[in-house]
Amino acid sequence: MTDSATATGPLSGVRILDLTSVILGPYATQILADFGADVIKVESPSGDIMRHVGPMRNQGMGHIYLNLNRNKRSIALDLKQEAARDALRRLGATADVFVTNVRPAAMARLGLGYDDIRKVNPRIVYASATGFGARGRYAGKPAYDDLIQGLSGIAAIAPQAWGGEPRYMPLAIADRTTGLYLANAISAALFHRERTGEGQTIEIPMFEVFVEYLLGDHLSGLTFDPPEGPHYYPRLVSKHRRPYATKDGHVCALVYTDTHWRNFFKAIGREDLLVDPRFSTHGGRADHIDAVYAFVADTLKTKTTAEWIALLDQADIPVAPLHDIASLFDDPHLNDVGFFRFVDHPTEGRLRMTDVPGTWSASQPAVRSLPPNLGEHTTEVLREAGLSETEITAVLGEKAPRG
After folding, report:
1. Residues 6 or more apart whose Cβ sits within 8 Å of residue 233
2. Cα 59 to the chain's mean position, in Å?
């Protein structure tokens, strides 16, 4: 890890007040923190709800929290108290970005809306992650990953591919997709401010972001008016689009381009199929995608996983082993690039952590600090904002966590 004072990430020197919780917002702000920003995580006295989701070694330090909040400082404020809200506005005067996933109406009632923060800092980038855009009838409604997966249509597409009942993807894909969008939007707003000097408020609605994400693949025939073809991308929902069974396990392979297919047929001794209209062109394969996938599936059952990886690698056809979560830690490429590291957390002991993806030639992001305990930096940050010891005591009271 590197010291925060010597951080060289591209956002080094940017200060972010982070009032987000759960997954979407903390994922976005962790990306920005990895990029060098000084992210101050503002929590209630009970902490971000994800602190309390196990497994964990100590209360308030659950695994998802640990994997969403590195490179941040934590302050604990009871925003029901006017003194705490005053302190947060003073912090707002020192910040570049104010980001929240609390409903805008609630923030306004607290005196912490965009207009309130802009009064003390006209250059602020004020980012709100919401469930739904403010101009629509769903504005203000609660939104969680499960709801957005269902409302967007992705849960209903699943039976096309897997059969059975509608189901959610087994990851918080709507939260994390929107978190990526939010991090991009904040970075772009900072760039705009560098060019123009203008702060602004931005709203990133989860529903709209995820529908756009989904329809990039599945608008399909509805792209056209009147519609042309199916209402989804057939290749992605084919029941045969899955890891292929081999004689002793599974392998992931994609025979996709014309060159891939020529090489594949040559490798398996079936060059006669090069003139089969189902296989000879990309359009033909798209029109017969189930038959194409089924042919590959039947073929790959004839050899072992190791044999197919060697044969397809030699034929320059994309191929990879099928990992589970545990086997990822033995992946030779990830170990080559040092993607996993063990760190010693001051209260949580030995932890496995992923590194920041990517390589930068001039401003390499880095893991500078480990996920903080609740309120670990409260006193430190409030002092930086110019609060006196008397004011800090008034803000925190006797029971609030403090650093």
Report:
1. 217, 218, 220
2. 25
The answer to whether domain 244-321 has CATH 3.30.1540.10 is yes
Residue 5: its pLDDT value, please? 47
Q: What confidence score (pLDDT) does residue 383 get?
A: 96
Q: Are strands 38-43 and 244-245 parallel, antiparallel or unpaired?
A: unpaired
54, 131, 43: which is closest to 88 by C-alpha? 43
Strand ranges, E, within 304-395: 319-321, 340-345, 349-354
Least reliable range by pLDDT among 15-29, 72-86, 115-129, 279-293: 279-293
Question: According to the model, what pLDDT value does residue 391 have?
Answer: 94
Fold assignment, 4-213+338-396: Rossmann fold (3.40.50)
Identify the residue whose tokens are 């099928």: 322
The token pair that represents 384 in the structure block: 């930086």
**Where do the domains of the chain lie?**
4-213+338-396, 244-321
Summarised one tens digit per residue, pLDDT across range 138-156 is 999 999 999 999 999 999 9
Burial classification of residue 111, based on how many CB atoms lie within 10 Å of its CB (0-12 exposed, 13-18 middle, 19 or more buried): middle
Going by the DSSP 8-state scheme, the letter that residue 316 receives in this structure is: T
Rounded CA-CA distance 182/184 in Å is 5
Q: Is the dihedral of CA 99, 24, 374, 70 positive or negative?
A: negative
